[in-house]
């Protein structure tokens, strides 16, 4: 959409003009709390979910504020901006803007104090249509600000404690992203999402059907094995049959893995490999491989006379007792399957994915402790790496530690991504990936990723 056809109307200040009449061409992002805020990245989530909260962090409090709230001056500030769609149709979107500013003593302090909260700082309307007329200005779209609460304190930066809320630039940045970058076509986002969900639903139904058939087939095979075990006079024949059943089971696992590739390619027909950069695709793929990992573990436990898995879990818990129990379960499962199948000619993707889930969970907990991400977020490895690069100061990392940590994660992710390739993961691949994250369950060594994280945080 032509910027000269967009009207800017601020009912609070009384200003109405076409955007071609002012210095609006460079408004594409804002600096909030010393951090760049790009509206385009938030718009799609806002339109689909009707509500989105943006958080950022900073250091230091005003002297008077610190005394009033009984907090140290070097406290951590937490800023939350919440956008809620009050009304949306083909012609316009009305958004309510709320803000909250909180503070906490340190990264490890559990208490959070509210410094400021405004549930309705302002309302912004984004309007589109042919030849809209407002106060003598005519255009094809309009950005209108109204119901402004003067007690706003949205924008923080590193130079001042509280900078006045520049609401006009904020509304313009969102409006330009909506009308210029997206051409005002918010309905297309909704339709595309609905179509995507319908397609995914059909494939999920097919997956459930195939899974039911596989369970029924396995049940028949189990009954056959039970009948053979009851025939003592045919012992030799039963042993041979069990070998055949094992081979069939391995073939079924391979078929299940191929099916996982097929279902994940519903948006990429004809490609050879999974798009590991697509977070949703990778999450689905990882979930399916973890199902196979669980099946491998259950099958191996049938012959685990020495209770090796229990022993490994105890060793994991003893060494890494500060890590979450679910993350240690993935680490123990990966190590157990590696020991059981190290002499087998197989795809070791389930082993590597189990190790990856452990690292993923441990990193997410570290990011939460450093107030880099909110408590309800659990990013995957690639996103965790991006957060670490952007927020080393919140994690209290030196430059040397940051470089080492980033290099280790990059190397580990390269091996993990091989699980999404049709040639799979070799024993050598999984052993090299393991050498990056840990070596033994006894002595600590900061050169290994899990040992460094445990000792650092």
Describe this structure in words.
The strands form two sheets. The protein has a seven-stranded mixed sheet. Strands 3-4 form a two-stranded antiparallel sheet. By secondary structure, the chain is of the alpha+beta class. It folds into three domains: 3-184, no CATH class; 208-271; 274-457, no CATH class. The protein has helices at residues 39-49, 63-69, 167-181, 186-229, 235-264, 279-301, 308-319, 325-341, 349-369, 381-390, 399-417, 427-437, 449-456; strands spanning 6-10, 15-18, 30-32, 35-37, 51-59, 76-88, 92-104, 113-134, 137-146.
Structural class: alpha+beta
Mean pLDDT, nearest integer? 79
- Rounded radius of gyration (Å): 28 Å
Q: Strand content of the residues, in percent?
A: 15-25%
Distance between the termini: 49 Å
Number of helices: 13
Morphology: globular
Helix content: 40-55%
Number of strands: 9
- Detail the poorly predicted runs: 154-165, 255-272
Strand order across the largest sheet: 2-1-9-8-7-6-5
Q: What is the count of structural domains?
A: 3
Q: How do the SSEs run, as a string of H and E?
A: EEEEHEHEEEEHHHHHHHHHHH
